[in-house]
TrEMBL record:
GO cellular component: cytosol
Organism: Sinomonas puerhi
Primary gene name: glp
Keyword list, A-Z: Magnesium, Metal-binding, Molybdenum, Molybdenum cofactor biosynthesis, Transferase
Name of the molecule in the record: Molybdopterin molybdenumtransferase
Molecular function in Gene Ontology: metal ion binding; molybdopterin molybdotransferase activity
Record GO biological process: Mo-molybdopterin cofactor biosynthetic process
Entry cofactors: Mg(2+)
Length: 444
């Protein structure tokens, strides 16, 4: 995958970054969840996440107000109800003229006009009489008969004289500084195709077309479930051994930026029964209250108190260790019919899991959020990477086009994450890279 445009479309989800061997994978079926023994490839895990949430592509269509539609994907083609511009108008503050009036001007040069009534933007002008030039403001409707505009600074005198006075204007071709009806967007044309992510320009276009709502799929409902006995809520005092819950807000913000309004819950305990009760509560919710997907964070590795693993035991959920760092330990499946994606607890692991596993799948399935821009850039420094794993380093793209690493590879380095604006991908099979070696960079 090379070039700045690469990876922005759905087709790129599965075919880049050959990571992980995927070889020799076998799964142990215990009473409940399955644990994959060997490292699973990133593509394989993405494909499984895609299969888990693919049914959500059929969410019902609805019309959302523009503000709420930001970040969502269009549910059907958007057809322009009006022309843009809706009428021929001036591109400059100047004088509307009939270009034929310049015929016969000496040497194709200037000639004198009688100044007509001024035309402000928003007014409907009277037709322009031959030999007249009407002061016209930018965006104002061209008067009937006029077909060109001379900017005021080219007039002699270079200002707007009183109506009835004379002004000398240099010769112009028909069409000069006239913005024609429908020349930007023609009424009836499909201006945005179904599946287009609604960013600021698309929202601006919809507003410019006079639309107050757009057709989208019902927004995905995601509940973020932070787990861990060590978690403390922001605003409380940290007891010894505690840390503040970063993951809940980190993922909430990541989803919000991606056009998804998520809900947060926390089970500040390592008691699997407590977590199970919370999952049962979420699975039992009905209608709009019921999440489409729950993302858990924490409790999925090999410790003695892996609450998420234990709570999901007996359900159709599998756990695997991916050939990726950070974001190695992962889980996914359903809990009483509720799709669950289990991310590891380290904050950077959560972020990378979102960026590398879930976000590209949403982009592929739903068209929004847009895929991250990817490019190749030379490293500003040498690096080493563990064998057999895609290593995802936090990085910054410098003004000189080189990519520099921010912080080390550790998945607890939240400060470095916040100082980064890119991810540098070191593919598996690569254990050392020199200064100047090219890596794939995702701009976050
Ligand atoms: N023996 C092994 N130990 C670990 C392995 C392994 O393969 N073998 N994998 C390591 C990797 S890699 C990761 S990543 C972590 C994943 O651990 P868990 O998903 O079980 O997460 P926790 O143990 O609950 O937490 C890990 C770390 O993250 C902190 N944390 C958790 N939740 C939050 C939160 N909401 N906000 C901020 N920080 C959070 C937690 O305190 C821990 O420090 O396992 C390794 N271990
Ligand atoms: O895979 Mo863990 O996410 O290194 O830190």
């Amino acid at each position: 995958m090379t070039g700045p445009a690469a990876g922005t479309g759905p087709a790129h989800v599965h075919n880049h970054l050959e990571t992980g061997t995927g070889k020799g994978v076998h799964e142990n079926s215990r009473a409940g969840h399955r644990s994959v023994q060997e490292h699973r490839s990133v593509q394989e895990h993405r494909a499984r996440i895609a299969a888990l949430i693919a049914p959500l592509a059929a969410r019902p269509l609805e019309r959302l107000p523009l503000r709420a539609a930001l970040g969502t994907a269009l549910g059907s083609d958007l057809v322009a109800p009006v022309d843009l511009p809706p009428f021929d108008n001036s591109q400059m503050d100047g004088f509307a003229v009939r270009s034929v009036d310049f015929r016969g001007a000496v040497g194709g040069g200037a000639r004198e006009f009688t100044v007509g009534a001024a035309i402000p933007a928003g007014a409907v002008p009277v037709p322009l009489a031959p030999g007249h030039a009407a002061p016209i403001m930018t965006g104002a409707m061209m008067p009937e008969g006029a077909d060109a505009v001379v900017p005021v600074e080219r007039a002699e005198p270079p200002r707007f004289p009183e109506e009835g006075a004379t002004v000398s204007l240099p010769s112009v071709e028909a069409g000069t500084y006239v913005r024609r009806t429908g020349s930007d967007v023609a009424a009836g044309a499909v201006v945005l195709a179904a599946g287009t992510a609604m960013g600021a320009p698309q929202i601006g276009l919809a507003a410019g077309l006079g639309l107050s709502t757009v057709p989208v799929r019902r927004p995905v409902r995601i509940t973020l479930l932070s787990t861990g006995a060590e978690l403390a809520a922001a605003g409380t005092r940290l007891a010894p051994g505690q840390i503040y819950d970063a993951n809940g807000m980190l993922l909430w913000a990541a989803l919000r930026e991606a056009g998804i309004a998520a809900a947060n819950v926390a089970v500040r305990s390592d008691d699997p029964d407590e977590l199970r009760r919370e999952l049962e509560r979420l699975a039992g919710l009905e209608g709009e209250a019921r999440p489409d997907v729950v993302i858990t964070t924490g409790g999925v590795s090999k410790g003695a108190f892996e609450a998420t693993k234990l709570a999901l035991d007996g359900h159709d959920v599998e756990f695997a260790h991916l050939a990726m760092q950070p974001g190695g330990p992962q889980g996914l499946g359903t809990f009483e019919g509720l799709p669950v994606v289990a991310f590891p607890g380290n904050p950077v692991s959560c972020w990378i899991s979102w960026e590398v596993l879930l976000r590209p799948v949403l982009a592929e399935l739903f068209g929004a959020p847009r895929g991250r821009r990817r490019l190749r850039a030379p490293l500003a420094e040498a690096l080493t990477s563990p064998p057999g794993k895609l290593q995802v380093r936090r990085a910054r793209l410098r003004a000189d086009g080189c990519v520099e690493l921010v912080g080390g590879p550790g998945s607890h380095l939240l400060g470095a994450l916040a100082a980064s604006d890119a991810l540098a991908m070191v593919p598996d099979g690569v254990t050392e890279l020199e200064v100047g070696a090219e890596v794939e960079v995702w701009l976050t």
